[in-house]
Amino acid sequence: MRPPEFWRADVSGRDAAWTLRALLTPVSWAYAAVAAHRVRTTISRHAPVPVICIGNLTVGGAGKTPITRAIRAKLGANVHTLSRGYGGRAIGPLRVTPDMEAAEVGDEPLLHANDGAAWIARDRFAGALAAANAGAHVIIMDDGFQNPSLAKDLCIVAVDPEYGVGNGAVFPAGPLRERLEDGLARADAIVLLHKSETLLGGAAPEWMQDFEKPVLDAVLAPVGTPPPGKLIAFAGLARPEKFFDTLEAAGGDVDEAVPFADHHPFSADDLALLEGLAQERGAQLITTEKDAARLSPEWRARVAVLPVAAKFDDEATLDALLAPIQSRMTTAHG
Question: Is 14 domain-assigned?
Fold first, then answer.
């Protein structure tokens, strides 16, 4: 789904939907209470190896997957990723391979499988055991911050600094998955994932003023350059405009930008519309790695992809956060 406008912090007038928000507020109180009760009463079970969780505070994307991939690259071999497999039908635990279909395992696990060992499991603890038994020295969870069933050794929260925490209300009155103070209390660090280096730094937002743990800045940077000529860009992300902005900032000539809902399953009609638009404009279709994972092999060969990666502004602070995990890996495995 596309986040409603009234979830944003910077809306006013009709878009603020004050009446609807007021009607939804009691539901959000109940949602927050259930989330807090689950965290408080669930007995978290520890995996045999360290577990890092890359999560977020809000519904929708905030850059968890590129941050997961960047941290995986720093930790080297024997790192396994663990995801729920959102959008896929498999329950798991299941080891994901790059030749699987997004309809089976979800799109993000396929990206992780291109980097190394990747697992999906609705039962996160069972997934962690499967990964450890298969040789994982450390597990990185892509999402699962609000899932207390598996104990975490390090929790890093991804935040889109342009969106922040929206209007600060819990779902469905706002985008928060739980009360802000509850989420911040469990977080060991925050990563602000900017769309441009020019946006790095600046004063901390008001909602972060009392957060005394590390706050890291990172940039979602393109890997390589866009193809020459006119481009028809399409993306099914929580905030597809971030991809369109990144593409233009990298020098892409975006003739048309077509947004879809997050994890959108592209139908034959969708692709026919996009292909017709490209032919009409004399343009090339281009999308994200995540969206390309949901295309058939035939369509994947016909659509350009602009990969992106999270680049950290302060590698030393990130290294310090990861040092206890790396120390445990060295002690256990040499």
Answer: no
Q: What is the rounded distance in angstroms from the CA atom of residue 3 to the CA atom of residue 101?
A: 27
Q: Cα-flanking dihedrals φ and ψ of residue 37, to 5°?
A: -65, -40
In this prediction, residue 85 carries a pLDDT of 92
Q: How confident is the model at residue 4 (pLDDT cuts 50, 70, 90)?
A: confident
For 227, other C-beta atoms within 10 Å of its C-beta total 14
What does the block give as tokens for 153? 């050794």
176 in the same domain as 251: no
The residue to which tokens 């927050």 are assigned = 32
**Per-residue pLDDT tens over the stretch 96-138:** 999 999 999 999 999 999 999 999 999 999 999 999 999 999 9
Which residues touch 232 (CB under 8 Å, ≥6 apart)?
A: 255, 256, 258, 274, 277, 278, 281, 283, 284, 285, 286
d(CA 183, CA 178): 7
Strand order in the sheet with 284-287: 253-260, 230-236, 284-287, 304-305
First to last CA, the chain: 46
Share of the chain above pLDDT 70, in %: 96
The pair of structure tokens assigned to 230 is 């006119």
CB 253 within 8 A of CB 200: no
Could you tell me the pTM of the whole model? 0.92
Q: Are residues 204 and 244 in the same domain?
A: no
129 phi, psi to nearest 5 deg: -65, -45
Residues 74 and 139 in one domain: yes
SS3 160: coil
Name the residue with tokens 């292909």. 275
Q: Find the domain containing 296 and state its range.
A: 224-306
pLDDT at 106: 93
The Cα 264–Cα 238 span in angstroms is 10
- Asked if 158 and 55 sit in the same domain, the reply is yes
Query: Total domain count for the chain?
Result: 2
Residues 187, 58, single domain; the answer is yes
CA distance linking residue 176 with residue 56, whole number of Å: 9
